[in-house]
Design goal:
single chain; about 675 residues; mainly alpha; three-stranded antiparallel β-sheet; two-stranded parallel ribbon; about 55% helix; elongated
């Protein structure tokens, strides 16, 4: 007989002696505790939400452009002219567009869907963990998710990962409902929800899918062949829902839709497998920039779209061009890509998630969650069919471990806020380990005490070590220590059952002090990195040059005033190399702003012939050039120099003119309509 079976019998005998009024008090306390956790989570996500800025300008401009027309809305066009798409699927931005339609395009409206999703994820995770491990474990899981720093920083931003996590938790509920009720419709609902997640962040939505499939295959109330048939049918539904938008877009004639941003062949399928697929796995998949081949033919509302260059370095979420992007380093890799990325996500290796810069995002409780899995396996026992607790452990361990290995060893493209995917399984497994320790303590108190000392001590030591890098905030470690010592002392003291529960609660509370403090500092940070969300106070947040350049500076405002005075309101305001340059002008005016190269400046959105025709047709008059234009688009740069005149903008001290080489003015305005 397993430890779990023995403890269940003792628990059942104890519960039979509990009076009804005691059960009512317990329910009231559990309800009040959950409400308090929700208040904490809501404060961390909603306090001064959107006050810092409008958020990631690439995504914000996309939402503003989507509100310009149904065409832009469906295709998720980055700019109001509909020339190029954002490099993500549309569902997350559709939801943001709905919020912006009601509340306006501002920081609060764009971050609101993610903050709401984050708060709703808290009681949802509580219900999921409670189903297998009880209400107290559910409360602990909810608390950990509510205060995990990476979830707070990401869900306070207009990046769409918070929505994805919420949808995946809904899918998890549906899968578990299918397992326990034996109804196919819940399984199909689960894969339908995962398919929706795919249309929020593409392949990232599939990360927990192996765990969900395994839980259904191992736990469903059907014979083996029926389980396989159900999963096969579910896979068909999953693929249909996942690729529905992509197929519709790719079947739309290229001259009737925008260019697919960051794709190499103007197709969503290639975007899925390339920029949002292989490039996320290995660094070698990040291909060098290429500027040959034909480009878009036609006007501002689509045009004939054909071949595009290979993948640019960087990612849409950054909202900026990395230093040296577009230049080839030895070996064909883009220069300047590795150094900045290492500063954000560290070097691949076993300690990546337990050291700077990622440990402060999701590593605070990771040792307890991972090292406690063997303990939970022993406590749940080995038997067939699998118990609810075994299924729950398989679900959360199967969600966490593959993702943890991916983030630990990948050399591909990812950002630190992607670790939000680790939030639910870490929170659930922390609760599972606490549950297992309590079950163990009911029979072998000293063994449970020793394991609690080992697991919590190692976790607390990591938190102390992390905070030594931020001595100003070491008070969190000093606050946690007495709680931890008190909890261990009470746990060693043989007394009433409630005393043991209180002791374990103190140990758990000591471990959440540091992540709670770090999340609070994240919320109170008046200068967060809004393009690449990261947690912590302003002096700990990793910033990139120009990362928070949301509004137009004084020179840009003079250029904008000149453009507004000298352009037709129905034409393109100006043309730029990339989305980083274009986004502030789009947000300031809601006018179309053409990008020659899409997000990073490397897409072939337009070629010289198309540019010339647009100027001749009066669609475009001005080009805002920078030195990188000559590197990324040499043919277009040459055409601009030969066919356009530099403009003297009133109010500026110097004439804006293109200079040869990399030392030219970064804001050189040219008039191509003269």
């Amino acid at each position: 007989m397993s430890i779990h079976s023995q403890t269940l019998e003792s628990s059942a005998r104890a519960q039979s002696k509990v009076r009804p009024d005691s059960l009512d008090v317990q329910k009231l306390l559990i309800g009040a505790s959950l409400a308090l956790i929700l208040l904490i989570g809501a404060f961390l996500r909603f306090y001064e939400l959107g006050v810092a800025s409008i958020g990631n300008t690439y995504y914000a401009a996309t939402v503003q452009s989507m509100l310009a027309s149904w065409h832009n809305f469906f295709f998720a066009a980055f700019e109001p002219g509909g020339s190029v798409t954002v490099d993500k699927p549309p569902l997350g931005f559709w939801i943001q567009a709905g919020s912006a339609y009601l509340l306006g395009v501002n920081g609060f409206a764009l971050a609101l869907p993610q903050a709401l999703a984050g708060v709703c994820s808290i009681p949802l995770l509580y219900a999921l963990v409670k189903r297998h491990f009880g209400a107290k474990a559910g409360l602990l899981a909810a608390l950990v998710l509510a205060i995990t720093p990476v979830t707070v920083s990401t869900e306070r931003n207009n990046t769409i990962d918070g929505l994805l996590v919420f949808v995946l938790l809904l899918a998890t509920w549906a899968f578990l409902k299918a397992v326990h009720d034996g109804r196919l419709r819940y399984l199909l609902l689960g894969v339908f929800l995962v398919g929706l997640g795919f249309n929020i962040k593409m392949l990232q939505a599939y990360l927990p899918l192996p765990a969900l499939y395994a839980v259904y295959f191992l736990g469903a109330r059907h014979n083996w062949w029926k389980r396989l048939w159900h999963l096969a049918l579910a896979t068909v539904v999953l693929l249909v829902v996942s690729f529905s938008w992509a197929v519709i877009v790719d079947l739309t004639p290229a001259d009737q839709r925008p260019f697919i941003g960051s794709s190499t062949d103007n197709s969503v399928i290639e975007l899925i497998t390339g920029h949002n697929g292989l490039s996320r796995l290995v660094g070698g998949a990040r291909l060098a920039v290429r500027n040959d081949g034909p480009a878009r033919q036609g006007g501002s509302d689509g045009g004939q779209l054909r071949n595009a260059p290979l993948l640019p370095p960087g990612d849409a979420a950054s909202g900026q061009r990395p230093s040296g992007a577009g230049q080839l380093a030895p070996g064909g890799q883009p220069a300047g890509d590795g150094g900045g990325r290492n500063q954000e996500v560290g070097e691949a290796g076993w300690l990546r998630l337990l050291s700077e810069p990622l440990v402060t995002e999701a590593g605070w409780l990771l040792p307890l969650a991972v090292l406690g899995i063997p303990l939970a396996l022993v406590v749940t026992g080995l038997r067939w069919p699998l118990s609810n607790q075994q299924l729950g452990l398989a679900l959360w361990a199967g969600w966490l471990l593959p993702e943890m290995l991916y983030f630990t060893f990948t050399t591909g493209l990812f950002h630190s806020y992607y670790l939000i995917m680790l939030g639910p399984p870490i929170a659930a497994l922390v609760a599972v380990v606490a549950w297992a320790l309590w079950r163990l303590a009911e029979r072998w108190r000293w063994l449970a005490w020793a394991l609690a000392l080992l697991l919590s001590g190692f976790t607390l030591a990591l938190q102390w070590l992390t905070l030594t890098n931020y001595l100003k905030y070491a008070w969190a470690a000093w606050l946690a220590l007495p709680l931890w010592l008190a909890g261990l002392g009470l746990l060693a003291w043989k007394g009433r059952p409630w005393l043991g529960k209180a002791a374990l609660a103190l140990v758990c509370l000591s471990l959440v002090v540091a992540p709670l403090a770090w999340s609070g500092l994240t919320t109170l940070n008046a200068n967060p990195n809004v393009n690449l969300p990261s947690s912590g106070p302003s002096d700990a947040v990793r910033m990139q040059a120009g990362a928070n350049s949301i509004t137009l500076n004084a020179s840009q405002q003079m250029i904008l005033a000149y453009l507004l005075e000298n352009t037709n309101p129905d034409s393109y305001l100006v043309a730029t190399l990339n989305a980083r340059q274009a986004a502030p002008y789009i947000l300031a005016t809601s006018r179309p702003v053409l990008t020659f190269g899409g997000f990073m400046g490397s897409d072939n959105v337009v070629d010289v012939e198309t540019l010339s025709q647009m100027v001749a047709d009066g669609e475009l008059r001005y080009v805002l050039a920078e030195p990188n234009l000559a590197k990324s688009k040499p043919e277009i740069s040459t055409w601009v120099q030969h066919n356009c005149q530099p403009v003297s903008v009133p109010g500026l001290n110097t004439t804006m003119g293109m200079q040869p080489g990399p030392d030219g003015d970064p804001s050189s305005l040219y008039d191509c309509g003269v």
